[in-house]
Input
Amino acid sequence: MKNSVFVGSLFCALVCSSASAQPFPNKPIRLIVPFVAGGSGDVVGRLIGSKLTEAWGQQIVIDNRPGAAGMIGASLAAQSAPDGYTLLLADDSVVSITPQLQKSMPFDVKRDFAPVTTIAHIEFLISVNPSVTANNLPELIELLKANPKKFSYASAGIGSIHHLAMEWLKRRAGVEMVHVPYKGSGQILGDLTAGQVPIAYTGLAQTLPFIKAGKLKPIALGGPNANASVPGVKPVADTIKEFDGTAYWNLFAPAGTPREVITKLNAEVNRILEDPQVIAQLSSAGLKPIGGSPEQLAARMRADYEKWGKVIREIGLKLD
Output
């Protein structure tokens, strides 16, 4: 009887050891995007997810978990098992902005997440309904100065990158607009094209189709450089010095995820970001592939935290 128990225990140990030694990944991976479907996070997540599925033969499941400025999805990721099978795709609003605005956070970015890599640079665009007479930023500023508080602008919510960038613009340009917060860029673009709100600051990725269809007019780019996707459109920084209202999509795993898993994820995503097809697809959506090491992502997060913190203090934003 004792020998039977011993043999059974040994067999179980060998099977369990073999299972734990299976190479990563050996089952589907969930990629949490903490925003509504249809935004630039989906563009990035589904593109990278499809390429990872091709490379590894395991399905990458995109899990949109919007709400509370990205906090719901990010909290879910932070509480997940640190085994590499739950990942988080988050932008600067989640890791650099909201933590400076919320009195109480459900997670700590530095403590609860392990950086994997920076995936893409997000370009933003100020665009207007065609009924607005301005065709560029200097003209828009002149129009706003002549009509204080008569124009409104849409953002993806209080404390979002969209909101901070436009308040930064308002302060530096000396203009007044009414802020209309939305729950996501998809809703903004629908109302913007319908003329229910005249001005918006949205991701170039999701705004570009409306620009190409002639349903919206591009006014200025949020980043400091021109973008081939919208030829002739100048950056805000050409008018307002040092303005940089752009952000990044970043890949994270829960803290405690084995280093070898982080290394494998990092290497594979970096390889994908060098694929000419991926570069072309991201570029056509107004996104620039970045890549790099986990350490580089951590360093840039610190710099972005300081950048947005300075903006928050300058515009005097406080959340109740």
Notes: The mean pLDDT is 90. The first strand starts at residue 29 and ends at 33.
